[in-house]
What we know:
The protein has helices spanning 78-89, 91-104, 108-116, 128-131, 140-156, 190-207, 227-247, 260-263, 290-303, 317-329, 357-365, 373-386, 396-403, 471-475; strands at 29-31, 34-36, 46-49, 121-127, 159-166, 213-217, 254-258, 277-282, 307-311, 333-336, 340-342, 349-351, 393-394, 408-411, 417-419, 454-458, 479-485, 489-496, 508-515, 538-544, 547-548, 550-554, 557-563, 567-587. By secondary structure, the chain is α/β, with parallel strands linked by helices.
Amino acid sequence: MSSTVSATHPPLSPLAASRPDVAARSFVRRAGTRIVDGTGAPALERGVGIGTWLLPEGYMWGFRPAGRPGAGVPAQSPREIEALFADLVGPERAATFWTRWRASFFTEADVAEIAAQGFDHVRLPINSRVVMDDSGAFLADGFTLIDACIDWCRVHGLHVVLDLHGAPGGQTGTNIDDSPRGRPELFTDPNYRALTVALWAELARRYSDEPVVAAYDLLNEPLPNEHAAAHAVDLVSLYRDLTATIRAIDPDHLIMYEGLHWASDVSIFTEVWDANSAIQFHRYWAPPDRAGIAPHLEVRDRLGLPIYMGEGGENGTDWLAAAFGLYTAQGIGWNFWTWKKIDNPHSPAVVVPPPGWDAIAGYAAGTHERPDPDAAWATLLALVEAVRLPNCTWHGEVIAALLHRTPVTLPAYAFSGACAGSRSIASSTAAESQTGAAEPADAAGEPWPDEPVTIRYTGGDPDVNPFAADPAERARAGTFAVHLRAGDRVDYDLHVAEPVARPGGSSETTVTLRTGPAAPSGITPTPTPPADPAAPLGTMTVRLGGVAVTGAWSGTAWRGSTPTVPGATTLRIGVEDGVVDLIEIAVR
């Protein structure tokens, strides 16, 4: 993590104030190790996934597996959720529900808000059963939904990545691909393979002249777990055939390939299969550090292809700020998973479950009796209204963490550059920055001794993953602190939002630094005595955009302010005397 970022891989662009006319900028393409549009401007830098619209996943609806064998009703894959609703309200009502659901869950209002928040693209997961039946016939209603998404994105200046999330037969053998028998039969049944090739041929035919479509993401998270070793060769063969099929029809669109095991294993990428391609990886619940993405960076450098983080999220804002800040600093375009879910605070838009939803979810989990059909139907109709964006609960803190946009609270370990005393280890400029993070400390309490500054992890229950998706598990974890000695400094890349009008016409940005004792058990720090006896922890300098922030200590918190200057900037925190264990930074 302490290596300086190569000059050939500068960070992503600052957030754009407005979205350009994407259709007028020609096709998105590969330019060396970057993804650009036809004008050479960066593309696919920051996006969101539209999960559960065309391919419902049980956890996004609050469905949980039954607690004991034989109880409840399976409701994890699209097929299972569809069967549950048909069982509860009858096939005709269930079909009506799905039509209304797809007309409400994701609309032009969602696209307009995504653009307004500063994103530049959406990744659209597609279930093959929405656009193709088992005989291989194409379904007009399904393509109408894809076309609508593309049209909305054209109006609001966004690109679209078409993601085959559920291939015919299934490419993962899990609920996320809607496989009919819970096996990756795409790789064992020639008929499913032929259907997948035919589907990509049809997608290429339909969208070959559409520049709003940025890329073809051939298969989502193929072959996890034990399936990876069994069918890795088959995946490479399929990728080659899909590439040839698409290129015979469409010479222009960027093609994306995902690796094995939830798109985390890049071992199959030993050569370039297509000159206009990129490699996509996914990352969840792991330390948000450079070491974790080192295999992907190596592939980028070895093959000279762009890499793209196509899925990550389902976590607290601390992790989001560090992980997505890391991708931004490393020049890696990314896509957050996912835009909207039911009763789940990990998304920006959270659907408030209507009355009666607990009965349906409880029936699926085996904890409630079967709901009355008319009551269940009333609940499903209420859900159709609840999923509309204006009716959702807005979690702006999620987007603030992703974009480092004020008002925002960042964990101290989400720095973009650091310097230890006179030893400049990581560049302190936005053009040459990286993010540091940490794993639980070793016995010495000093993880990563070669880091420019020390990151300590203390307290918490043993064997807890501090980066877990479950908030309850994260709450049992310890505390990370950046241990700064005299001469150390850390930088944080920010985007300062336009100031909110205040009485008197003045506007200021306030910086609050939360500190605390983070010395591991058995280690006694020996800091240089503070020059100012009133400073309980140390004497600091804080600069925002090169301008000194005037402030003072109050207990274990430091607070200061400076006139607001909107736009991309850097917050620099340095220690002149003493020792500071920095835990959190809030910029308002």
